[in-house]
Amino acid sequence: MIKLYGFWRSAASFRVRVALNLKGLAFEEEMIDIDAGVQYTPDYLALNPQAAVPSLVIDGGPPLTQSLAILEYLEETHPAPALLPADARGRARVRELSLVWAADHHPLIVPRVRRYLADEMGQDEMARISWVKHWFREGLAVGEAKLANDPATGRFCHGDSPSFADLCLISQAAGARGFKVDFSDLPTVSRIVENCLALDAFARAHPLRQPGAPAHH
């Protein structure tokens, strides 16, 4: 049995949901309401001391945390369909792209950073939204620059099948759209995002299709 602790709006949970769907792995998800502070309850802190989502528990074993580490675990234990290329250089490229979005840009917009901007730096809501939109946009613009003229880019970030990079790109793009960031001028990114969303594994995992999302109200 696979149990995912996530949140509808969580980009990192979105990545893991897509990977589980692509690999055909059935899972149950428990939503940890980040807005309500459920991540700080003793029960959840015992599971994940970082007070973050996602956490993945497989057959009652120790929890796995950090979305990219979870993706690597799933790739090693369920190698088909592959979400990493067969060649070392291709794998390095996919991991590089993944880290641009998941490690360089996503951490700047998470709730704990926005709370610090408000509580410690005195930034009002308009300033915080401007901050978030800037980093969403910059991450996608960097992606466009890296993807646009690289012959390794295909229908997806790397070739013609989804990889870790697409899971990280789609989570960045979904968050950007949630904050009404326009990236229609980034043609390669926009094309890959639409190719991802055309796949059922991505569409079913989309934040707005999860329990608790605005579309469910």
State the gist of this model.
By secondary structure, the chain is α+β, with helices and mostly antiparallel strands. The chain has helices at 11-22, 42-47, 67-77, 88-105, 111-119, 125-147, 164-178, 187-197, 200-205, and strands at 2-6, 28-31, 55-58, 64-65.
* Amount of helix: 40-55%
Task: State the end-to-end distance.
Answer: 29 Å
CATH architecture of the largest domain: Up-down Bundle
Tell me the overall shape: globular
Secondary-structure element string: EHEHEEHHHHHHH
In total, how many domains does the architecture comprise? 2
Give the amount of beta strand, in percent: 5-15%
**Class from secondary-structure proportions:** alpha+beta
Main sheet strand line-up: 2-1-3-4
**CATH fold node name of the largest domain:** Glutathione S-transferase Yfyf (Class Pi), Chain A, domain 2
Radius of gyration: 17 Å
